[in-house]
Amino acid sequence: MELTQAIERRRAVKKYDTEYVISEADFRALVELATQSPSSFNIQHWRFVDVTDKEARQKIRAAAWDQAQVTEASKLLVLCADVKAWEKNPERYWNNAPQAVSEMMVPMIKSFYEGREWIQRDEALRSVGIISESLMLNASAMGLDTCPMIGFDQEAVGEIINLPEDHIIGMIIALGKRREEPFQHGGRLNFETVVVNNKF
Ligand SMILES: Cc1cc2nc3c(=O)[nH]c(=O)nc-3n(C[C@H](O)[C@H](O)[C@H](O)COP(=O)(O)O)c2cc1C
């Protein structure tokens, strides 16, 4: 499928075919392609919690205003970010680069993030946002559907997935096959509204 078609086809889908189960091979292919996404200093803060446990899915649904897609979609992914990934063996992010590049980039990571908690968190959320869209478009290209979600109790879901202290949740994504077409969406802001010429 063309990228433009995948973009146009993607919707926040809430009603899923409960019989459909994504294969592990398709799931792996989907995630591996999404991990080609860009991230600041190539830190790749994203960590996906694939919630396969049925009881945990029910508990998350209860913590998410009983949104049906939480349990009805084939997969439920909690898209988390390691806020401290910048300081955890940063050499690994530049392993394959030429040595001169790696020697320049790795120390820059430390000087950019050390002591700047706000940007550590912003960056972690940026990374989750970018990979989430890659994942959703890739799913759309495969004829699959997704629903990004922030309508849930962060603390409760954090407890269910045993979220480490230095990680945050960016969003939850339900993944599966639509069982009916989503309603016409709210509409999009036009070009003139979203593009600012030189200055606000
Ligand atoms: C970060 C984020 C959080 C969202 N949270 C929810 C949610 O909790 N429940 C829901 O049904 N839709 C949720 N949505 C879906 C939006 O309502 C939807 O993307 C928007 O209305 C545009 O419609 P479309 O995605 O079908 O084009 C969320 C979307 C994003 C990006």
Strands, helices and their partners?
Blueprint: H1 3-9, H2 24-34, E1 46-50, H3 54-62, H4 69-72, E2 75-82, H5 99-113, H6 117-141, E3 145-149, H7 154-160, E4 167-176, H8 191-194
Antiparallel strand pairs: 1-2, 2-4, 3-4
Helix pairs in contact: 1-6, 2-6
This protein binds flavin mononucleotide.
Q: In CATH's first tier, which class applies?
A: Alpha Beta
Q: The biggest beta sheet, please?
A: 4 strands, antiparallel
In this entry the ligands are: flavin mononucleotide
Strand content: 5-15%
Which terms would index this structure?
single chain, 200 residues, alpha+beta, NADH Oxidase, four-stranded antiparallel sheet, 8 helices, 4 strands, binds flavin mononucleotide
Written description of the protein model:
With 200 residues, the protein is an alpha+beta fold. The chain has one domain (3-179): NADH Oxidase (3-Layer(aba) Sandwich). The protein is 41% helix and 14% strand. It has eight helices and four strands; from the N terminus they run ααβααβααβαβα. The protein has a four-stranded antiparallel sheet with strand order 1-2-4-3. The longest helix has 25 residues, at 117-141. The radius of gyration is 18 Å and the shape is globular. The termini are far apart. Flavin mononucleotide (FMN) binds at residues 11-12, 14, 67, 147-151, 171, 182, 185-186.
